[in-house]
């Protein structure tokens, strides 16, 4: 009998959005100190690059961990429709109560991908906020 093989699939998707880093639990001065120029009252934007990685058994019959068409559909539902070309703080209810840091965007994507994917398949969300700032979240 052939050994069970585990594979990882990563799909990359880009989206653009704006936001303002501002916590209602901090004073205006504290927000300026913590978030700096990202606390600009008029907000700022990013061209985010998200990598969604799934991990699972390579099916002996199909040769796939999962169908990429299905992964693409999940990404469209979770990332593109609610987040692309949006003001995260004003257009996405989740960020009405949560500061829209890239870490929290990763958590948002993780939680919503879990609702779309088969159980145990989601492995990692990696978001490139800029060329130099990258956030990784694995549900921990």
UniProtKB/TrEMBL annotation:
It catalyses: 7,8-dihydroneopterin 3'-triphosphate = 6-pyruvoyl-5,6,7,8-tetrahydropterin + triphosphate + H(+). The keyword Zinc applies. Binds 1 zinc ion per subunit. It comes from the Eukaryota. GO terms for molecular function: 6-pyruvoyltetrahydropterin synthase activity; metal ion binding. Its cofactor is Zn(2+). Its EC number is 4.2.3.12. It is an enzyme of class 4 (lyase). It holds the Pfam family PTPS. One of its GO terms (biological process) is tetrahydrobiopterin biosynthetic process. Zn(2+) binds at residues 19, 44, 46. Keywords: Lyase, Metal-binding, Tetrahydrobiopterin biosynthesis, Zinc. Pathway: Cofactor biosynthesis; tetrahydrobiopterin biosynthesis; tetrahydrobiopterin from 7,8-dihydroneopterin triphosphate: step 1/3. Belongs to the PTPS family. PANTHER family: 6-PYRUVOYL TETRAHYDROBIOPTERIN SYNTHASE (PTHR12589:SF7), PYRUVOYL TETRAHYDROBIOPTERIN SYNTHASE (PTHR12589). Involved in the biosynthesis of tetrahydrobiopterin, an essential cofactor of aromatic amino acid hydroxylases. Catalyzes the transformation of 7,8-dihydroneopterin triphosphate into 6-pyruvoyl tetrahydropterin. This is 6-pyruvoyl tetrahydrobiopterin synthase.
